[in-house]
Specification:
With 136 residues, the chain is mainly beta. It is built from 1 helix and 10 strands, in the order βββαβββββββ. Helices cover 3% and strands 38% of the residues. The strands form 2 sheets. Strands 1-5-4-2-3 form a 5-stranded antiparallel beta sheet. The protein has a 5-stranded antiparallel beta sheet with strand order 6-10-9-7-8, with no helix packed on it.
């Protein structure tokens, strides 16, 4: 298995509720998971096997892309539409690839298990981020 392949132009969600907007601290693409850097207050790409705990804990999924210092809308919970890359009913987790979303089968030793959400269909992921506090 591998991270889901996201077509950035296919990522869509209702703007309200559960959407926050912050500035990008790195180049971000729609559909990537992000966390809020406590030092800069900017968004960076989440990564379940990062050496730093904050980077392992995403706050949501970017709804648009942007370069450094551009505003990024982030869906923190609720449905997000992707291209047809999901398995209905399956759980999807923070990947070890920065910003990636992966099935449970891709989690490896050293990864912090962080559920991003469950697929309601082959195109809709219900975002409900939960950290298991378990490192494989």
């Amino acid at each position: 298995m591998a991270d889901i392949s996201v077509t950035a132009t296919a990522v869509k969600a209702a703007l309200q509720p559960n959407v926050t907007t912050k500035l990008a601290g790195a180049a971000i693409t729609a559909g990537q998971t992000v966390y809020l850097d406590a030092t800069t207050g900017k968004l960076l790409l989440a990564d379940c096997d990062s050496a730093t705990i904050p980077a392992r804990l995403p706050i949501g999924i970017a709804l648009n892309g942007g370069a450094i210092d551009q505003p990024i809308a982030v869906k923190t919970s609720g449905p997000v539409t992707f291209n047809a890359v999901l398995t209905a009913g399956a759980g999807f987790y923070q990947s070890g690839t920065p910003g990636g979303i992966a099935p449970i089968a891709d989690q490896t030793t050293g990864d912090l298990l962080v559920l991003i959400g469950f697929a309601a269909s082959t195109t809709v992921l219900n975002v409900d981020i939960q950290a298991a506090s378990v490192v494989l």
